[in-house]
Design a protein that fits this description.
Shape: globular
Distance between the termini: 32 Å
Order of helices and strands: EEHEEEHEHEHEHEHHEHEH
Oligomer: single chain
Largest sheet: 9 strands, parallel
Strand order of the largest sheet: 1-5-2-6-11-10-7-8-9
Helix content: 25-40%
Radius of gyration: 18 Å
Amino acid sequence: MSTSECLGWTSIADLVGDYPDAPTALIGAPLNERSLTPGRCDLGPKVLRQTFPRFSTYDLETRTDLSGLRVHEAGDVFLKAVSPADAFEPVKAAVQAQAHRGLVILAGGNNAITRPGVHGIDPTLGSVGVLTLDAHFDLRDTDCGLTNGNPIQALLDDGLEGARISQIGLAAFANTRRAHEKARAAGISVRTARECRDRGLDVVAQQELERLSALCEVIYVDFDIDVIDRSQFQAAPGARPGGASAQAFFDAARAIAAHPKVKAVDLTEFDPSLDPGDVSSLTAGRWFCEILAGFAAR
């Protein structure tokens, strides 16, 4: 076989396929219904996968070579016109089916996939911790049903202890006083966007992972991509000026995926219909690369 790279290279796409024994798995969860800001987050998994051929398997900055890693392609959960309530069981089942692997990667879809994702790695909610990178608390009330604005509140309602939840990257003037008070009353660890900028998003993430590790056997991480500053990621309806830089997001993703107790991660609120010039899709694709690089470092 020729080793010439004149017309191509080994790409991230070459790592993803039908690999039953792979240590990681990718699941698409194109949930879009009941998004508080209407959009097309259902396109996220497809567009994310389309970026894979554009990334090589080699990071020259750290001399990390991912060419030996494999990711099992578990396909998409069928969620067309499915509500978050009705999506719960199929998303949970899809995650459970892959939970024997070292890491499950769940590509959304709106943020309502986070609740079933957490249940998928720990149906009892007795040993799991949750870390969110998000501009928002996602603690809206559930009396009007499940939406992409209340997965954390729904998990609290399900019985997850607030002390086993960490939320970082929370933005000013993007949350209510009531939501902040609810988080504090529940015992949730709250770290603001300013604190993450000052200390480093990866540093704050690692601090919270260590805190959660003392309380939990496994950790689920929700990467709501609206935590990134809107100037650097426009394809997230909830992104605001003042968020994290894309580079800070990448650094945090790698550090998080390297942690041995992180069992599953998701990427949510990526709406490709808002993406000018592929900037956002390539940011999402780079996130996937960083997750694999972090996992490979374990």
